[in-house]
UniProtKB/TrEMBL annotation:
Keywords: NADP, Oxidoreductase. InterPro entries: ADH-like_C, ADH-like_N, ER, GroES-like_sf, NAD(P)-bd_dom_sf, Quinone_OxRdtase_PIG3. It comes from the Bacteria. This is Putative NAD(P)H quinone oxidoreductase, PIG3 family. Coiled coil: none annotated. GO terms for molecular function: NADPH binding; oxidoreductase activity, acting on NAD(P)H.
Length: 332
């Protein structure tokens, strides 16, 4: 396959607001050992992209400074040692950055075939979100059939994915949101909605579970919710932290509450996981989630699609907090 010499990508010209995202011409990258080169048709927009753009997400060595952690497209070249894909395969991939571009390299171990019947936009909304939810809610968090989960930010990409997978795998879900429109969307996904603006989520959880609490909490708020989360947990409950929109530090931590419930407090960043760890998550997704997606269930909820050259508008929408589901960039 003959490839162009150059491509257009979206770079972060300097730390700042959405307007620092600008198009730039750069040589098309080459697939290294264990990698595939993907002609990108769509790329997902995620909260880490926004944090990186603001200059608050340190980059690990070897990671691309170009934003974009998930893509969908066609394999146009393969690196040494890659045997599971061939040129022409339609794939989606968890990248190590670089997704806001016409071409992107990704480790083959983090690349998966697009589920049957799925279009580019929906496929691009899968990797980062489904990797994150599976690794944190079901693996680290141990959510399983018959248990109860609380999902904060229930209408985000992470939130909607978590709620759909909870419904699919028999986990009773509660979710917080800040408007009636968002609460309605949560209810449509089969979960109990809690409007945090006029409801105390701890009180609601205690009432709805007859004082038993939830088995696992997926939290994006961090410090501001810490003690409330501990109060909402049941015995031997797990609090899994994914973000710190409410602060990176918790004051006056309720240690007695943690000890009396034998609670587990943990968290993770997908970007900091090793290639081997990400490969393991990919294998689990292929085994447990890919059949569900191929059957047409638990498909990503798409909020809005932008041209990739309008990445600044996409970031502004994410920061405004009005989106329900995933924001995706379409690449011509």
């Amino acid at each position: 396959m003959t490839l162009p010499q150059t491509m257009t990508l979206i770079e972060i010209t300097e730390p700042g607001g959405p307007d620092v995202l600008k198009p730039r011409q750069e040589p098309v990258p080459s697939a290294g050992a264990g990698e595939v080169l993907i002609r990108v048709h769509a790329a997902g927009v995620n909260r880490p992209d926004v944090i990186q753009r603001a200059g608050k997400y340190p980059m690990k060595p070897g990671m691309s400074p170009i934003p974009g952690l998930e893509v969908a497209g066609e394999v146009v070249a393969i690196g040494a040692g890659v045997s599971e894909f061939i040129v022409g395969d339609k794939v989606c991939a968890l990248t190590n950055g670089g997704g806001y571009a016409q071409y992107c390299v990704a480790p083959s171990s983090q690349t998966l075939p697009i589920p049957e019947g799925m279009d580019w936009v929906h496929a691009a909304a899968v990797p980062e979100t489904y990797f994150t939810v599976w690794a944190n809610l079901f693996d680290m968090g141990g959510a399983s059939k018959g248990q109860r989960a609380l999902i904060h930010g229930g209408t985000s990409g992470i939130g909607t994915t978590a709620l759909m997978l909870c419904r699919e795998f028999g986990v009773k879900a509660f979710a917080t949101a800040g408007s009636e429109e968002k609460c309605a969307a949560i209810r449509q996904l089969g979960a109990e909605a809690i409007n945090y603006r006029d409801q105390d989520f701890v009180q609601v959880i205690q009432e709805k579970t007859a004082g038993k609490g939830v088995n696992v909490i997926l939290d994006i708020m961090g410090g501001s919710y810490f003690n409330q989360n501990v109060a909402a947990l049941g015995m031997e409950g797990r609090l899994v932290m994914l973000g710190f929109l409410g602060g990176a530090r918790a004051n006056d931590v309720d240690l007695l509450g943690i000890m009396s419930k034998r609670a587990t407090i943990t968290g993770s960043l997908l970007r900091s996981r090793t290639r081997e760890e990400k490969a393991s998550i990919a294998e689990q997704l292929r085994e447990y989630v890919w059949p569900v997606l191929s059957a047409g269930r638990c498909l990503p909820m798409i909020d809005k699609v932008y041209a990739y050259t309008d990445a600044a508008q996409a970031h502004a929408r994410m920061e405004a907090g009005d989106h329900i589901g995933k924001i995706v960039l379409k690449v011509d």
